[in-house]
Backbone:
């Protein structure tokens, strides 16, 4: 018996006619899904590996991947939104989720739940985080929190040992200044990055002062006193020699590439990022990284939060939402795929996935898990997604903070300028 060669069959006019006669499509075509994310070399390697495996496991569906660095991702996405050609699946962060829901760029997933999308094993906290106004929009890839990553060798050389003279889960800015100066004296390396222009650190500080970053009416929460105090604390660390010089730190304002972190370049002993970035940062250096929370005020009011590190969302431009949501479902549930992703995007929100990953965790991933164990009960409540305009406020903070680092204007003047601009941004958003 000869084998039926469908491709050869379709190459002939008679073959096409025969298929049509039987009511079959003249040309079969794979279902196409485009996935777009912001990444780095480590994340891109893992995600393309997932896509390759998914395609091999899912005949008839072809997923293609697109990636850019964080700084270019949202610019490209804005262009795609305007052109009506967004990919099917996009990566989103909690901080901008509401904005993309508000402008209709991402659509609810509710109609696909229990069909192409399985969320039965996803933590309820993750489901709640992706739900806005009663509709489920965003599938959590993993949990995340702010993390201070520090070079354990440099800390040890300065005589600083976690659990003895350093509490990674409860230290103050005064402690940070003391340790930063000690590290600089012992090693010649600045003890800490200068977070004057770091909006994530600022947002934690606002909560530590008992305020909200955004009030319930969408207005901006920080006061003049809070902004001034934050910048003054970092000026004090800078003046004490615990950080790099202001001019050098100014050149790094707004830079999000892991390769530019002070702890990676060797310019500082401590850098600040999201906890899911520890694995990527560790892959760029030889010294071992350890983890701590962000510094706090003496009152120790929680400031950091636990939130989804990133989501995958379905866009309004998806031409095949069933295929796209099936891919999204596998991305967070399939142990073969999640085994490739590991913890690079955060702690998985599926309990079965966490259990499957545990035996094979790398040293850096084990540090991340231990960090999450340590911060339990020490974090603030997750606030609702920020209002439209929040991203522009963050960019404004980074821009005006440079003048503080350079000493161009008094802190009080820059703080007033920042708050006036922020209020105007939110008012017109």
Residues:
């Amino acid at each position: 018996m000869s084998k039926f060669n469908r491709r050869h069959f379709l190459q002939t006019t008679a073959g096409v006619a025969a298929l049509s006669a039987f009511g079959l499509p003249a040309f079969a075509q794979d279902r196409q899904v485009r996935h777009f994310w912001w990444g780095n070399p480590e994340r891109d390697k893992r995600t393309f590996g997932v896509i390759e495996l998914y395609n091999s496991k899912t005949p008839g569906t072809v997923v293609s991947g697109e990636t850019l660095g964080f700084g270019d991702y949202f610019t490209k996405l804005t262009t795609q939104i305007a052109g009506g050609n967004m990919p099917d699946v996009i990566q989103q962060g909690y901080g901008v989720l509401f904005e993309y829901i508000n402008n209709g760029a991402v659509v609810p997933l509710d109609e696909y739940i229990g069909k192409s999308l399985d969320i039965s094993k996803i933590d309820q906290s993750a489901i709640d985080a992706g739900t806005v106004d009663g509709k489920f929009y965003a599938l959590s890839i993993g949990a995340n929190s702010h993390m201070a990553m520090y070079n354990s060798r440099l800390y040890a050389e300065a005589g600083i040992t976690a659990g003895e003279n350093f509490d990674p889960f409860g230290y103050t800015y005064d402690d940070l200044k003391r340790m930063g100066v000690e590290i600089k004296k012992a090693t010649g390396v600045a003890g800490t990055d200068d977070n004057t222009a770091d909006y994530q650190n600022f947002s934690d500080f606002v909560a530590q002062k008992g305020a909200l970053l955004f009030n319930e009416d969408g207005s901006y929460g920080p006061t003049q006193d809070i902004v001034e105090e934050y910048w003054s604390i970092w000026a004090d660390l800078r003046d004490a020699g615990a950080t790099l010089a202001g001019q050098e730190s100014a050149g790094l304002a707004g830079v999000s590439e892991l390769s530019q972190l002070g702890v990676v370049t060797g310019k500082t002993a401590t850098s600040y990022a999201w906890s899911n970035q520890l694995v990527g940062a560790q892959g760029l250096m030889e010294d071992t990284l350890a983890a701590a929370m962000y510094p706090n005020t003496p009152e120790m009011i929680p400031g950091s939060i636990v939130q989804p590190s990133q989501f995958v969302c379905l866009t309004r431009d998806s031409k095949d939402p069933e295929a796209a949501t099936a891919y999204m479902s596998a991305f967070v549930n399939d142990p073969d795929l999640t085994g490739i992703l590991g913890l690079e995007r955060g702690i998985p929100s599926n309990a079965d996935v966490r259990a499957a990953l545990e035996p094979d965790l790398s040293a850096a991933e084990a540090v991340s898990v231990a960090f999450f164990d340590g911060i339990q009960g020490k974090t603030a409540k997750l606030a609702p997604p920020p209002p439209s305009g929040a991203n522009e406020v963050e960019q404004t903070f980074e821009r005006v903070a440079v003048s503080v680092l350079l000493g161009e204007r008094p802190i009080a003047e820059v703080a007033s300028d920042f708050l006036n601009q922020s209020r105007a941004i939110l008012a017109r958003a």
Summary: The beta strands are 31-38, 61-68, 89-92, 131-132, 135-136, 138-144, 146-151, 270-274, 289-292, 307-314. The domain at 146-304+389-428 is CATH 3.40.190.10 (D-Maltodextrin-Binding Protein; domain 2).
